[in-house]
Structure formats: C-alpha cells, structure tokens
Design a protein that fits this description.
heterodimer, A: alpha+beta, Helix Hairpins, Heat Shock Protein 90, five-stranded antiparallel sheet, five-stranded mixed sheet, 10 helices, 48% helix, B: alpha/beta, Rossmann fold, Arc Repressor Mutant, subunit A, five-stranded parallel sheet, four-stranded antiparallel sheet, 8 helices
C-alpha cells in the first residue's frame, strides 16, 4: 500500500538530492575554471619573466641564466620547465631551456601546438602538466648597442611582429608546470563537495520526514477519528473545526456518508427488529394456543375451535413469509431484463380496481380511474399488476375512503416516461410519516393490523419498480392527500 | 388475584386470559393501550400483563402513565423485542418483569405469581396461618392435623384464590367489595351473595379437613382470616 507520507518524503528528498547534486557540480565547475585561469595566469607570469631575460644584442639573441633568479627551474621533484627557441631562417634553434630538463630533449619547436596558447601535456618527468607557448620578438638591448640614449624601446615595440626590425628573429617560448597540485586541489574540492552534499541529503531526508509527518498530522488525526467509528457509534461525527482547508471538505463528505450510513443502519435495525417481532408473534400465538389447550382436559368442540384459531395464525404467518420472500426477491433482482413489448398501464389499473372490488366482497368500491389514453410502459404484465394492485390495496386499506373521497388513480404519459399517481385522503399522516412509508414493516400505528397488513406492500412495490428502472415516490399534498407516484420509463 | 391483559393479538389475548383464569386468577383482557390504561386506573389490579406494541397507545406509554399515576399494580411487559437495549428500556420505564415472545405458559404463570406476591410484599411463596399452609407456587393449601398426616385441600380455583387473598392479609379484615374486585373479573356474573357462598364453601372444606375455624365474619365489614378466635 502506498503511503502519502513515505511517497512525499521520498519525492522531496529526491528533489533536494538532485538540486544539491546540480549545485555541487556547478560549484565544482566554477571553481575548476577559476583555478585553471589562475594556473594559466601564473604560466603567463612565468613566461613574462622569462621573456625579460631574452634580448637581442647586436643582432644576436641571448638569454640570461634563469636558474639563479628562478630556482623553480632547477631540477627537483616539483620542478617547472621551459624551452626557448629562436628562429633561424626557416628552422627553429634551441636558444635555452630550464636546468630541470637536463640533457634530455623534450619538445621540438615544431611539436608545440598550438603555436601560441595553453595546452595540457605530460611533463618530461612524466607528471601531468600544462604548457603555455608564446612567440615574441626580443627587445634590443640598448646598452649592448653602445648607444645609451637611443630609445630602441620606442623603435622596437615588443610582443608583436608588426613593425619588428627585420634583423631581430622571433623567439618561441614554452613554459610548463605540473598540474598535480591543481588536480589535488580539485580532487579535495570534489571530495568536500561530495561529503557536504551527502551530509545535506541525509539531513534533508530527516528534515523532510519530520516536516511531512508534521504536515500530515491532521490526516493521521482524521484517520484515527474515522477508525474509532464502528457500527455502534455511527451517530458520531468528525470534528471539522481546526482541520486544514484541504481536509475540511473531506471530513464534511465523510460526515455526510456517516449520516447516510447511520440512516441505513437504523433502517436495517428497524427492519430486523420488526421482522423478528412479526415472525415471533405467530409462534407465540400458536404456542400459547396449544399450551393452554393442553393444560386442561378439553372437549372435542373446544379442540376444533383451537385448531381453527391455529389455522388462522398459520394463515397470517404464511402470508407474512410470502411477502418477505417477495421483498427479498425483488430487492435481489434489481437488474431484471426489460421485456420487448409495451403494455398499457391503464388496462392494468382497471383490472386491479376490479380485482380489489371482487376481493372486498362489497357492491361498490370508491376507486376513480383517470386515464385519457393508453399508458404505454415497458414492464412485465404480472409485475405491473403486482405493483399497481399493491398500491390500490394500500390506499383502500389505509386511506380515508368514501364516495366523496375516492382513491384516485391518474395516469399521464410523455415522451420519456409513463406516470401513475394513486392518491387517497390520509388525515393522520404527516410529512415525517411519508419519509418512512417505504420502510418494510413501517405502520402509522405500531400495532399489528387487524385488516391483515404487514407494512410490506409499499416496500415490495418500490423494490419491484426498481427492477425495471422505475421509481416509486410519495408525498403529501396541501389537502392532506397521500400521493404515491409510480414512474416507469418507456 | 386480579390480572389485566393488554395485548392486541386476539389469539394470544384469549389464550392468556383462559390460561390465567383456569389457574384461578380473575382476568380482564383488552386489545389496545388506551383501554388498558383506563382499566388499570379504574380497577385495583394485582398484575398487568402489558404488550409493548399496541394500537392507540404503545405499552411503554401505558406503563409511564401508570407509574405517573402511582398505580401499584405490578407490570409484566410482553414483547417480541429481544435486544438488550429493548429490555433495559422496558425495565427502566418501570416494568417489574419482562418476557420475550414466544414464551411458555408455565413461565408466564410463574412470573405472574411472583409479581403478585411481590405486589403484596410477600417474600416467600408459602403463607402460613395456624395449621394452614398455602404454597403460591404450586397453588396448593394444606392443613396440619394435631395427630395425623397433613391434608391437601381440594379447592376450586376461585376458592383457592379467596383463601389465598385472605391469608395474604391474615389478621386484617377484608371487605366483600374488595374480595369481589380481586376474585371476579368483568366477565363473571357476581350475585349479591356470591362472596358469602364462596366463604361458606371454603369454611366447609377447611372444617372437613379437620382444620379449626380460621375465617371469621366481621359484621357489616367482611371477613378476616385469623388463628385462635372464638
């Protein structure tokens, strides 16, 4: 299972680690460039110093001994190197080189590439190094020319070929230094950046975990509150005050869900309690009937009466069982296939009214049917008869029905659906009662109905209507009439 | 002992009434809560057997109203509700006992007897007056003879009820009207001398069993059950 806390911690830590790595690399690159620049500047300084030792005397290029004033060119473990060539016609002749080079030859003037500039190159002692190559026209030494007042500086500007006197040859100078100290510094720097970076990553991981845990604490609190709510404590609600704005709507929705669950559980409990009551009653009746019968000697006539009473009890128990089975089947078959053919609900209403009249054994029954035309509906005929019959029976049984106040069955049909509204005068019924109307076993009066009702008819009808995508709803109108509406799609 | 049954199921109501009557109780039975309360208010019942789910007025409301009016009758609640919550609710609203449907006749009779006893502050199921011993559990009366075995009296249910009622109030005079109210229910046709005839029959049976005279007449008042009176 994914944990938001773990995921967020990992994502934040990874981001921080990435950013730190980029920062470290950038820092390393900048420092490296700066150090290399500094290194090259030093090479340039070295070259400039050597350049000062080279001058032209009477057409001859000469170089003063460097070793005396520049001890770094003497042979040693960290010696530096230089080689100077002077142009001799088309070729280059070695003018001088550092003592550190000894007798060995290192580079030829023609090997030096680029002609002017820096390059990485292994030193003669094998260490990695870097070379700087410059080319210049040596200055003419005024003292050597015997004319101390002559300003050859002015006549012979150094460092460029343009304007160079034709008799002074060019000098090419290569200075070289080991890059080992530079590499060591860079390695140390890389190590330091890496170590600091790693420490920062670890620290940020801990900080992230702490921050995320702290940040998600309201979530944990909410989760703990939700975990405490069980089937017996569904009346509890989550406290919304003090929750962050992101969680308040979640808690609100959860509270709504809890309210619905609480409602459903209460309905279920009422159903179970009512069902157990209804099922126990006939057992209690039969048991008492037989026990009292057996408690004394009885006449055959008396036993016959007991048997009749017992049959009556069984009859009712059987009807209850059938109604319960019907309800359970209707609720289970909530996705029944729709029949292909349409039936006329107006005809069903008339048939059911006739059946109710016959069943009542009376001469007249106050049921008024208003169906201007056919009322087509896509529903099984037996199903429609069962629903509409239930509704008419219910209205007749519980309504205040008379010639002035008949049960009215009004049908309408439009493009989308066919509706039947069955209404009856219900003086004692309140709006609150109407909300319980479709609950199994709900009766306005808690007593068992002497007329044989169990309070299952409307529940069964609603479940049956739902099997074909229909709806059964109820409301009270202003004249205290209960209107039950059956809406069936085409 | 007079019992009121408030139960809306006709079969159960009639069976219960018959069972209790045959045991010797005077029984009235009604089908709805409102009438139940009216009956309970107008007659001094020893025990009321009260169903929970009733038309007009449910059992709990009847019970609350009875307790509010300080009616002394012991109440046995009958119901098909069997959850602990339901039982607690029933007992908390003043029921003296609680019986879940379905139940056995024997159990109901035992509980009604226990409640009736408690109603008259009688802690033991036996009542003793002189040589007479009445066991209200087995509903038998026996007399001890000076020389010889104890004799169990063969009493009709109403005679037993009369003896029992007088014995429960031994030493205290009981009026004829009170006896009528507790021994006869609304169905009985009570003649003006019914109590006197019943007392005479009872006296005869006690005498036949060798019991000294215990039931004494109090002129213009009624009767008293007492030992050792001339």
């Amino acid at each position: 299972m994914t944990s938001i806390r773990h995921r967020t911690s990992m994502l934040v830590a990874l981001s921080i680690a990435g950013l730190l790595a980029l920062g470290g690399l950038g820092l390393f690159a900048i420092v490296r460039v700066a150090l290399a620049q500094q290194f090259d500047d030093r090479l340039l300084t070295r070259a400039a110093a050597l350049q000062n030792l080279i001058d032209a005397k009477a057409g001859q290029i000469e170089m003063d001994k460097a070793g005396e004033v520049m001890p770094w060119y003497r042979p040693s473990g960290d010696a530096e190197y230089f080689v100077a060539w002077v142009r001799d016609g088309q070729a280059w002749r070695v003018l001088a080189h550092s003592e550190s080079l000894g007798a060995s030859a290192w580079l030829g003037a023609g090997d030096v590439l680029p002609r002017v500039g820096v390059a990485d190159r292994a030193l003669p002692d094998g260490r990695p190094g870097r070379t700087l190559t410059v080319e210049f026209i040596p200055e003419i030494d005024p003292e050597a020319d015997g004319d101390p007042n002559a300003s050859s500086h002015a006549a012979l500007p150094s460092g460029g070929l343009a304007g160079t006197p034709a008799n002074v040859p060019a000098v090419r100078l290569v200075v070289a230094q080991s890059t080992v100290p530079l590499d060591r510094t860079l390695a140390t720097l890389a190590l330091a950046i890496g170590a600091v970076g790693l420490a920062l990553v670890l620290a940020s991981l801990a900080a992230t975990r702490w921050a995320v845990r702290r940040g998600t604490r309201p979530l944990a609190t909410l989760s703990a509150s939700v975990a405490q709510i069980g089937p017996d404590t569904l009346d509890q609600r989550l406290a919304i005050d003090g929750l962050p704005t992101e969680l308040a709507p979640v808690a609100g929705r959860l509270n709504e869900l809890l309210a619905r669950l609480d409602d459903a559980f209460a309905r279920e409990r009422r159903f179970t309690s009512a069902a157990s009551h209804e099922l126990r009653t006939p057992i209690a009746e039969l048991r008492m009937l037989l026990e009292v019968g057996l408690s004394r000697e009885r006449t055959p006539a008396r036993w016959e009466q007991t048997a009749h009473d017992g049959l009556g009890v069984l009859d009712r128990a059987q009807r209850l069982t059938e109604a319960l089975l019907q309800l359970s089947r209707a609720e289970a078959g909530s996705h029944a296939a729709l029949p292909d053919a349409m039936i006329d609900l107006a005809a069903v209403m008339r048939e059911q009214a006739a059946r109710a009249l016959e069943a009542s054994g009376r001469d007249v029954l106050h049921v008024f049917i208003d169906a201007p035309g056919p009322l087509p509906a896509r529903i099984d005929l037996a199903l429609a008869a069962s629903i509409i019959g239930n509704l008419i029976d219910n209205a007749l049984r519980h309504g205040d029905v008379s010639a002035d106040r008949p049960v009215r069955c009004v049908g309408t049909s439009d493009a989308a659906a066919t509706s039947i509204i069955i209404s009856n005068h219900a003086p004692g019924l309140t709006d609150t009662d109407v909300t319980h109307l479709f609950e199994p076993f709900w009766r306005k009066d808690t007593a068992r109905d002497a007329r044989g009702g169990f309070g299952l008819g409307l529940a069964v009808s609603r479940a049956l209507a739902a099997t074909v995508g229909g709806q059964l709803t109820a409301h009270m109108d202003h004249q205290q009439h209960l209107q039950v509406t059956l809406k069936l799609p085409h | 002992m007079r019992v009121l049954i408030v139960e809306d199921s006709a079969v159960l109501r009639d069976s219960l009434a018959q069972g209790l009557r045959e045991t010797g109780y005077a029984v009235d039975a009604v089908a709805d809560g409102k009438r139940g309360l009216i009956y309970a208010q107008t007659t001094d019942y020893d025990v009321v057997v009260l169903d929970w789910m009733l038309p007009e007025m449910d059992g709990l409301s009847v019970l609350s109203a009875m307790r509010a009016k300080k009616l002394p009758a012991a109440v046995l609640m009958l119901t098909a509700r069997d959850t602990v919550d339901d039982k607690v609710r029933g007992l908390m609203s003043g029921a003296d006992d609680y019986l879940v449907k379905p139940f056995a006749l024997k159990e109901l009779l035992a509980r009604v007897a226990a409640l009736a006893r408690r109603r008259h502050n009688q802690t033991s199921p036996t009542l003793c007056v002189g040589p007479l011993t009445i066991n209200t559990d087995t509903r038998t009366a026996t007399t001890l003879q000076a020389h010889g075995p104890a004799i169990t009296l063969n009493l009709a249910p109403r005679e037993y009820a009369l003896l029992c009622y007088l014995a429960a109030r031994a030493g205290k005079p009981v009026t004829r009207a009170e006896l009528e109210e507790h021994l006869y229910d609304d169905r009985s046709q009570v003649f003006s001398n019914a109590i006197d005839s019943a007392v005479a029959a009872l006296r005869h049976k006690l005498d036949a069993a060798g019991c000294p005279p215990l039931i004494h007449t109090r002129r213009k008042i009624g009767y008293v059950l007492k030992e050792g009176e001339a």
